[in-house]
Specification:
By secondary structure, this protein is α+β, with helices and mostly antiparallel strands. The chain has five domains: 175 residues, Jelly Rolls (Sandwich); 92 residues, Immunoglobulin-like (Sandwich); 297 residues, TIM Barrel, CATH 3.20.20.80; 88 residues, Sandwich (Immunoglobulin-like), CATH 2.60.40.10; 94 residues, Immunoglobulins (Immunoglobulin-like), CATH 2.60.40. The strands form eleven sheets. The chain has an eight-stranded parallel β-sheet. A seven-stranded antiparallel β-sheet has the order 1-8-7-10-5-3-4, with no helix packed on it. It has a five-stranded mixed β-sheet with strand order 33-39-38-35-36, with no helix packed on it. Helix 3 runs parallel beside helix 4, helix 5 runs parallel beside helix 6 and helix 9 packs parallel to helix 10. The longest helix has 18 residues. It binds (2S,3S,4S,5R)-3,4,5-trihydroxy-6-oxo-oxane-2-carboxylic acid. The site of (2S,3S,4S,5R)-3,4,5-trihydroxy-6-oxo-oxane-2-carboxylic acid has 9 residues, from loops.
Length: 808
């Protein structure tokens, strides 16, 4: 929420920091609105003080560019916790001339978690809540020439602001998204709210509500609205006299609209101009998509009158090395990778995300579940309630026009682990949820509301996801169909959000632990106290093979169920969390289909094989190239592919052509038994495409008949990478120097001299502390520029240290 207040600070501002100038001319401002990115060259001070004067006196300001978080590394280093405090940012704005009749604003796309903005030493406004954009009016505080913007951002522990600290993700602090300077004509279009009340294949209607600031209504002032089709041709225009702050313009009969859907995300453009005596005073454009959707009672989901199986995944906003402070290019890359896998839906977990994400979803054709960050923590006090309602209002207001959004989620696991005494009282929680639900419907009657896992609230919202973690937090994945059948009956509008499990890149096993005989196979609800039940999360091997099977099973069930709305896999990319210090990569939730750098794990290809159209074959697995087993024992090899027919070759010999059948498990029947030869084995999978072409995948597997003994030590080796860094690899070996494929203990890397490890990345080659995968672990090392030999070591509790000198 935004508060404007102007309290003078009786201090003089002295800065001796490097600053950049932002220049824009009077002419530009006067003619039209301008929106200037001001990400570059901010000064930064890591100091908790709440006094600008104290901050100004500090000597240790540094220079950086936004977006920025101070938790980019400490969220994933090996020490508990991450910095939860305040920091200061400062920026010099040079405004050569203040234009008359112009409103100046700063627009923050998101700053976590509370923000206070000062301009020229005076408070300009503040904002409570991260993940949501806000503007601060600075018109009355700026002067011609040099201006200074100072921003205090705080991610301290604060139970009065959602999300709860008990959420399974890092609450990154900082100005994590872009910042802009807006110069608007005093009389300007503040925003456009666009709805499409009626849409069919034959015709559509369009409603544009324009809010105008400082409107001086008279007959010379007009609003002109035009609609362009996806090819850029104007298909409708209207000119009206605005007679109040909000003016509604309606187009009733747009013939044969080119619909927005997940295959062809057609976007129209709405342009609204504010004219005074036919002179353009302001102009705003928005994209619009014509589409309609329906969740049938107990039945599937329909988009534009056709059944669409929801094929979804989850996105957390973060990436290796930068945390939440991702560039737009990185944001876009995430969404493109999700689309390329064949998904048609994304749940933005567990908070609203960067504007670039919604833009990408509109353009790429990804349906969106947008979520208020009410994640865990129960019901809070009055301040908490006001904050949460404001955040919902802001989220809906700013994302309203995106055709990709179909669901406003009001929260996730809300009454679990309350932050306030009695905060898990179901009656009170449900009453508050109902308030939020009414508010969401009032603000946006065109979309549906949703929540996940808070069962008492299942009847409040339009669409509900219970918790089904078959094969991970509870039961066997083989009970998935039963879970679906139960909930399809029980909930009128049932969708399944969150399924999956952790997997450690490169960990493979001939017989994944499925828990058969050990766990209660029929359960599927995530147990509240996870330590009291035997589940795969606890007893499993966290291998890639197990997760491949789990997803393969879920998908072959989902794809063959004609009444199922669809499911949303958890989660697309590994992400940081303070709650998992002991994971194979510390502080990482490793349920991603890719690692934290976006490199696909095997499971990614399982999804691709069910969902994507561009032909491919993938042999399981490219990270399983050292294997062992007794002579004469056949191994089953799966090929994940979307081709109808695939042939597998072993050392040049065909093992036969197989037909893909989505009802068959595993790999839709594309699996072959083969007897590995000792030593090198070349496997080639050739898939036939619909147009008679072929696609193929090749791996080389080194197979041995001899089983390794127990590990007796570690070895170290290195290889130079294309980027000039070194990949240093540790192997656990037995007395015969055989790699111990069953060794899974943690090892610790250190670079003693000559370089720096790529640590704190939360990736398989970017953590100094990491568990071995089949007796192997690696870390990337950046060599010092002066060419000093690199000295590396690896050790753990049992092995006292192995050293390696890399001469550059
Ligand atoms: C859940 C939560 C999500 C967690 C996930 C997990 O049910 O909604 O925030 O990260 O499980 O990985 O355990």
């Amino acid at each position: 929420m935004k508060k404007q207040h102007f309290k003078p600070l009786n201090s003089s501002l002295l800065y001796s920091i490097a600053v950049a100038c932002l220049l824009f001319s009077l002419h530009d401002i006067h003619a039209q609105r301008t929106k200037t990115n001001i990400n570059e060259n901010w000064s930064y001070l890591e100091n908790d003080t709440n006094k600008l004067t104290t901050a100004n006196q500090a000597k240790n300001w540094t220079v950086l560019h936004l977006p920025h978080t101070w938790n980019s590394e400490d969220a994933t280093d090996n020490t508990p916790g991450y910095r939860r405090a305040a920091s200061w940012y400062k920026k010099q704005l040079v405004i050569p001339k203040i234009a008359a009749n112009t409103v100046y604003q700063l627009y923050f796309e998101g700053s976590n978690i509370t923000t206070k903005v000062y301009v020229n030493g005076k408070e300009a406004g503040d904002h409570i809540g991260g993940y949501i954009g806000f503007t601060i009016d600075i018109t009355n505080l700026i002067k011609q020439g040099n201006n200074e913007v100072a921003v205090r951002v705080d991610n301290s522990y604060n139970p009065e602001i959602i999300p709860s600290q008990k959420s399974d993700f890092t609450i990154y602090g900082g100005i994590t998204r872009d910042v802009w300077l807006l110069a608007l004509p005093k009389n300007h279009i503040d925003n456009l709210k666009i709805t499409t009340p009626k849409v069919s294949n034959q015709s559509a209607s369009l409603n544009v509500v324009a809010t105008i600031n400082n409107l001086e209504a008279n007959k010379d002032v007009k609003l002109e609205v035009s609609l362009k089709n996806p090819k850029g041709k104007i298909v409708a225009t209207k000119k009206v006299v605005p007679n109040s702050v909000k003016t509604t313009i309606t187009f009733d009969n747009i013939k044969n609209p080119e619909l927005w859907d997940t295959q062809k995300p057609n976007l129209y453009t709405v342009t609204v101009s504010l004219l005074d005596k036919n002179k353009e005073k302001d102009l705003l454009t928005e994209k619009v998509g014509f589409r309609w959707f329906e969740f049938k009672d107990h039945g599937p989901f329909y988009l534009n009158g056709k059944r669409l199986l929801i094929r979804g995944t989850h996105r957390h906003e973060e990436h290796a090395g930068v945390g939440a402070a991702m560039t737009n290019k990185q944001h876009r890359a995430d969404m493109e990778a999700i689309k390329e896998m064949g998904a048609n839906f994304v749940r933005l977990a567990h908070y609203p995300q960067d504007p670039e994400i919604y833009k990408a979803c509109d353009e790429l054709g990804l349906l969106v579940w947008d979520e208020l960050p009410w994640c865990r923590g129960g019901l809070g006090n009055e301040v908490w309630q006001t904050n949460s309602k404001n955040m919902l209002t802001e989220m809906i207001a700013q994302n309203y026009n995106h055709p990709s959004i179909i669901l406003w989620s009001l929260g996730n696991e809300m009454n679990w682990l309350p932050d306030f005494p009695g905060g898990d009282d179901p009656e009170k929680t449900t009453a508050f949820l109902s308030e939020l639900n009414d508010l969401a419907h009032k603000l946006d009657p065109t979309r549906k509301t949703a929540i996940r896992k808070y069962y008492e609230g299942s009847h409040v919202v339009d669409v509900f996801s219970p918790s089904i973690w078959s094969g991970w937090y509870s039961g066997s994945y083989k009970s998935y169909q039963k879970a679906l059948d139960t909930y399809k009956k029980e909930y009128k509008h049932f969708i399944h959000a969150e399924y999956g499990g952790d997997s450690h890149v490169g960990r493979h096993t001939e017989k994944p632990v499925t828990g058969e005989g050990l766990i209660k196979s029929e359960g599927w609800e995530e147990a509240i106290v996870q330590t009291q039940v035997a589940n795969i999360a606890q007893i499993g091997d966290w291998s890639e093979n197990y997760i491949v099977d789990l997803f393969d099973w879920h998908l072959h069930v989902a794809e063959n169920d004609p009444n199922f709305v669809g499911n949303i896999q958890w989660a697309f990319k590994d992400f940081a969390t303070p709650l998992r210090p002991e994971d194979d990569i510390p502080y990482m939730n490793q349920k991603g289909l890719t690692d934290r750098n976006g490199n696909p794990k095997d499971a990614y290809y399982v999804f691709k094989s069910y969902w994507s159209e561009k032909p491919f074959t993938y042999i399981e697995s490219h990270t399983w190239t050292e294997r062992q087993g007794p002579k004469g024992i056949a191994r089953n090899i799966s090929v994940y592919s979307n081709c109808n027919q695939v042939t597998l070759y072993h050392n040049g010999k065909s093992l036969g052509k197989k037909q893909r059948d989505s009802k068959a498990f595993p790999a839709c029947g594309l699996n072959w038994d083969l007897n590995f030869e000792e030593g090198k084995n070349t496997l080639i999978a050739v898939g036939e495409t619909k147009d008679g072409k072929t696609v193929s995948d090749t791996i080389n597997v080194n197979y041995r008949f001899k089983k390794n003994d127990t590990a007796l030590g570690l070895t170290l080796s290195s290889e130079k990478l294309k980027n000039g860094n070194y990949l240093v690899t540790a192997l656990a070996v037995d007395k015969n120097n055989l790699r111990c494929l069953d060794y899974e203990e943690r090892v610790y890397f250190q670079c003693l001299k000559g370089g720096t490890t790529m640590k704190n990345q939360g990736t398989p080659t970017g953590s100094e502390s990491i568990k071995m995968a089949n007796g192997k672990a690696s870390i990337e090392v950046i060599p010092d520029a002066d060419g000093t030999p690199i000295v590396m070591t690896v050790l753990n509790q049992n092995f006292k240290g192995e050293f390696l000198i890399i001469k550059q």
